[in-house]
Amino acid sequence: MKFGCCLNMIASTSDGIGLEFIEKLAEIGFDYAELPLAEMMALSDDDFSKLKERVKKSGIACETCNNFFPKTARLTGKDVDMEAIMQYVEKALSRAQELEIERLVFGSGGAKNVPDGFPMEEGYKQVVELLKKINPIAKERGIIIVIEPLRKAECNLINTFEEGCQLAKDVNGDNVKVLVDFYHLTEEKEPVEHLLKYGKEYLQHVHFAYPKGRIYPSDINEADYGPFIKALNEIAYDLRISCEAYTDNFEESAPLALAFLKASI
To answer: Which residue from 147, 141, 134 is spatially nearest to 207, judged by alpha carbons?
Structure first.
């Protein structure tokens, strides 16, 4: 098992990437960094080259990315510009490949949220067709897209792990799988039985946080983590777990979270 952190959640600079924490992440002993692709797509070619060089020198790799699409993208509804979307996808996946990304998280709640008045089933079909177009590009670049179910407060489409697995099934692509996020699963009160039912076939990445406040976890007794951890063990999940959480003191919170994860999972 590898453990990492979503550095955009604690970013202190205007670009929202969180790269200022990558050396500390390596020093603490995490295995990889998870950086936001949409924010990195906003960088100039020169600034992106500098980012790659800093990652290379940090002693820790960026093996996963979140934030596939920016909030300003429109993936559902009547105003979808598929040509522009696919141009973005080509460049985004090229940059991800340059960083040697292996898993790319497709949550993008703001982009895929179905607009008011637009049929939900049509929005769903639009996302299916988009992922079918993305799958061969991702496969060519050695990247697996992982669908992230988000709580209803953040998006009205794909809110549970079960729904994410159905979406992956409907896409039917070798490089489109699913992520489970303990925070979102808890918020939606989704049973861990869904993880047991679909996890072996579809689960390819995990996000983790202490659900009250979505902060860094630190102790096995602070929340009802047991059933979720047991389910991961029962399906023999052994890939990556990223802390996707907030903290006001990364240097204090991150080592506690890493020790918790290593001891508990």
So the answer is: 147
Architecture of the domain whose range is 2-264: Alpha-Beta Barrel (3.20)
Q: Which residues pair with 208 in a beta bridge?
A: 243
Tell me how far apart the alpha carbons of residues 204 and 29 are, in angstroms, rounded to a whole number: 22
What per-residue confidence (pLDDT) applies to 189?
98
Tokens of 176: 């489109």
- Name the E strands within 119-202: 144-147, 176-181
What are the tens digits of pLDDT across the range 51-81? Answer: 999 999 999 999 999 999 999 999 999 999 9
* CB-side neighbour CA atoms (13 Å) of 177: 19
What does the DSSP 8-state code read for residue 215?
Answer: B
Strands 144-147 and 103-106, bridge-based pairing: parallel
Q: Which residues of 186-211 are buried (b: 16+ CB within 10 A; e: fewer)?
A: bbbebebebbebbbeebbbbbbbbbb
Using one digit for the tens of pLDDT, what is the confidence trace for 6-43? Answer: 999 999 999 999 999 999 999 999 999 999 999 999 99
- pLDDT one-digit tens code per residue, 204-229: 999 999 999 999 999 999 999 999 99
Each domain of the chain, given as residue ranges in start order, spans 2-264
Is the Cβ–Cβ distance between 64 and 96 less than 8 Å? no
- C-alpha R_g of the chain: 17
